[in-house]
Q: What sequence folds into this?
């Protein structure tokens, strides 16, 4: 477990230091990103879903491209198929996906007043439990974080990112809803855009074997996700904090049309757990930026004299989450003990 405590301990320590903005902070932030990339991207036989993804890679590697694209999400299928043709394996796929995932997290963190505590807030669950196991969805999540970091840029860029994210995991189509809500349109035109988007993506989704599996899992069988309620709470708590403090927030940071949407959806997801706990659990992952955006801003919201206090509260809360997950989560055994390819390269 020491490796996991080191990973969360590094940004926790940095969150208490007065690191000047600009080049020193950016350089240090990307150094931390390198640590996260090595930790996540070079993991060795770690993750609850590693065996299933290994079999999936073997199947795709042996298929023609057309068959691979029909087997699972096209973006993820193409990545596996391409890696196999270049002589890579599942570890190569993990490393490539981790580059997208970690860079997305760090890019969004770099825009926040305290990027270190922002990273702390997503390390226990999103980085470790999801980023080191759910390979397809972690790629999609990384792209959604890039989307959030590009929120004030052109709609075409955001639409492109949401489309690529959905090609890695169909649940990321939720990002398209975020984007179309951010574009100033007449109500009838917004509805038309949604209808056209649904009409365009449905034939692609419906032709994939993944669609049948998701439909059966999330809707027909309604398989239970034991930790779903706890997972959505990770988003709902910062969402509630933002809604309670939104006037002060706007006065300090200006208007932000993304935070209210993420906050309302995060709280609403609590009530969706009873309908489809596994489905809501998966969709709530795309609301995770609310954790970074709220916790990464709280330390300066009430003035810098309270920064250490807020950092201590947020860090303490996430250390408790980490302890609970490592010791009591039903999937934690798939992550213990932690192992890394570097250890085997240097030893062998």
A:
């Amino acid at each position: 477990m020491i490796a996991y405590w080191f990973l969360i301990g590094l940004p926790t320590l940095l969150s208490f230091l007065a690191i000047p903005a600009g080049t020193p902070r950016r350089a240090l932030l990307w150094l931390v990103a390198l640590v996260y990339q090595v930790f996540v991207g070079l993991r060795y036989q770690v993750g609850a879903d590693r065996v299933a993804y290994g079999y999936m890679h073997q199947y795709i590697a042996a298929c023609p491209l057309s068959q691979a694209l029909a087997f699972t999400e096209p973006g993820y299928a193409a990545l596996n198929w391409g890696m196999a043709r270049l002589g890579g394996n599942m570890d190569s796929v993990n490393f490539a996906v981790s580059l997208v995932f970690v860079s997305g997290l760090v890019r969004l963190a770099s825009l926040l007043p305290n990027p270190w505590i922002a990273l702390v807030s997503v390390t226990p669950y999103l980085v470790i439990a999801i980023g080191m196991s759910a390979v397809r969805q972690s790629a999609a999540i990384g792209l959604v974080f890039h989307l959030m970091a590009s929120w004030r840029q052109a709609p075409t860029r955001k639409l492109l990112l949401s489309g690529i994210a959905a090609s890695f995991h169909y649940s990321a189509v939720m990002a398209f809803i975020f984007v179309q809500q951010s574009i100033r349109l007449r109500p009838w035109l917004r509805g038309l855009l949604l209808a056209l988007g649904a009409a365009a993506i449905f034939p692609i989704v419906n032709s994939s074997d993944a669609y049948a599996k998701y439909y059966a899992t999330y809707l027909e069988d309604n398989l239970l996700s034991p930790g779903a309620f706890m997972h959505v709470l990770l988003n709902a708590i910062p969402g509630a904090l933002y809604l309670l403090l939104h006037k002060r927030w706007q006065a300090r940071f200006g208007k932000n049309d993304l935070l209210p949407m993420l906050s309302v959806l995060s709280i609403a997801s609590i009530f969706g757990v009873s309908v489809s706990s596994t489905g809501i659990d998966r969709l709530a992952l795309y609301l995770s930026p609310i954790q970074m955006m709220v916790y990464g801003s709280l330390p300066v919201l009430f003035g810098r004299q309270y920064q250490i206090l807020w950092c201590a509260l947020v860090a303490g809360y996430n250390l408790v989450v980490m302890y609970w997950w490592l010791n009591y989560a039903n999937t934690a055994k798939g992550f213990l003990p932690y192992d890394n390819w570097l250890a085997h390269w240097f030893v062998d």
